[in-house]
Known about the structure:
By secondary structure, the protein is mainly alpha-helical. It has a single domain (2-178), classed as Four Helix Bundle (Hemerythrin (Met), subunit A). It has helices at residues 5-25, 29-52, 58-81, 87-109, 121-143, 148-178. The chain is globular. The termini are far apart.
Amino acid sequence: xxxxxxxxxxxxRLVVAPVTIWLILDGRLVTAFWMFSAxxxxxxxxxxxxxxxxxxxxxxxxxxxxxxxSLLVGxxxxxxxxxxxxxxxxxxxxxxxxxxxLGVVVLHFAGRGTRSLTPSMISKLNTVMQIALVVLVMAxxxxxxxxxxxxxxxVWIVAGTTTLSAVGYLRxxxxxxxxxxxxxx
Length: 185
């Protein structure tokens, strides 16, 4: 049973995603902040547990990124719908994720790689910055602080890291696509 704990945490995050989105759309940003924060914490914990328990599974390799993307992209869409984030930013974030999925699909069907691309340091930083932006946007009303200046800076940081991450994944996809099958570059 303990072996399946990382997958159960990913599943919980997948369940929490629509609740968080609903809370944002209902104007309850502070409650959404707590839900999102708890879900983000489970993401860190399930990764640690999967390594510590040596419990990496095929199901987890799909469930974890699906839960992550559902939570983060759904939250970005909801915060854009409520005018908390600019439309152009969510378009950039979603386009990067769609491009990433398409790249993996192309590589898979071309027989040029695994089912995923390894996240680079800039992609990991991008995820951290995306989460930080969401947390700040949702927490500021509850803290009764004007965080508009910091939020504006974070919007541009997220735009930059998202763009750099997309370029990195595109380069990796092109490199793998043009590397002959069976050759490890």
